[in-house]
Design a protein that fits this description.
It is a single chain. The protein is built from 7 helices and no strands. Helix 3 packs across helix 5, helix 5 packs parallel to helix 7 and helix 6 packs antiparallel against helix 7. The chain has one domain. The termini are far apart. The chain is 82% helix and 0% strand. It is globular. With 221 residues, the protein is mainly alpha-helical. The relative contact order is 0.15. It comes from Alteribacter lacisalsi.
Length: 221
């Protein structure tokens, strides 16, 4: 069991540290980041209950609905809801990049517990593949969500639009990822280019968030 927990936690810790240290200005308090991670861990249970209910009732039969509604919308909505209603108005959310840190922490908390359950049922030998694909993808969805929440936080005229983007775009990306897995016989040939795209897209958001913050400081020294 210790090996499973270690294998599940290690990639999440590495990814969270990576994006945490990408903040070029002011690192967030570790206790606040840890709380977001912990709350993300707890999110797995209501999400699993809802997804189990969908399966039991047979409400979503098509791969498209399963990918985009049962999985992507359910998981990303709960993450978005948690970040928006717990840390969005927090005193430490005071820079554009902060949304990335907090949303990524929530996403990786979720991914860690989900990963533990998967490795318990399927075996720790899948830990490396899980780190490369599901865990990394959750982190990248969190980065994109946090980027738009950061824009929403400091936008004068487009708060609601940016907050909506913070949910819609991760749902879209997550849905595409799941749809590839569900529908392609040789899904690795499609998911690997998509993961490369996700990394490039997310890292651009990281740079843009830091650039916006630098511009803000240059105008308000």
């Amino acid at each position: 069991m210790l090996a499973v927990i270690t294998a599940a936690f290690a990639p999440s810790a590495a990814l969270l540290a990576f994006f945490y240290l990408k903040d070029e200005f002011e690192n967030e308090p570790l206790i606040t980041v840890a709380r977001c991670f912990f709350f993300g861990c707890l999110l797995v249970f209501p999400v699993m209950f809802i997804q189990f209910a969908f399966d039991e009732e047979g409400l979503l039969q098509s791969p498209f609905l399963t990918a985009f509604v049962q999985t992507a919308l359910t998981e990303e909505f709960f993450k978005w809801f948690l970040v928006y209603f717990t840390v969005f108005h927090h005193i430490h959310f005071n820079e554009r990049y902060d949304g990335i840190v907090y949303a990524c922490a929530v996403a990786l908390g979720f991914a860690t517990v989900e990963n533990i359950f998967y490795l318990i049922s399927s075996g720790v030998e899948y830990a490396f593949l899980r780190a490369l694909l599901p865990v990394s993808s959750h982190a990248l969805f969190g980065v994109v969500m946090g980027y738009y929440l950061g824009k929403a936080k400091f936008s004068r005229n487009r708060k609601k639009t940016m907050a909506a983007f913070a949910l819609f775009i991760p749902v879209l990306l997550h849905g595409i990822y799941n749809y590839i897995i569900l529908t392609q016989n040789y899904w690795t040939y499609a998911v690997i280019p998509f993961m490369i795209f996700l990394w490039v897209f997310a890292l651009r958001k990281v740079k843009q968030a830091n650039r916006m913050q630098a511009k803000h400081y240059s105008k308000n020294p």
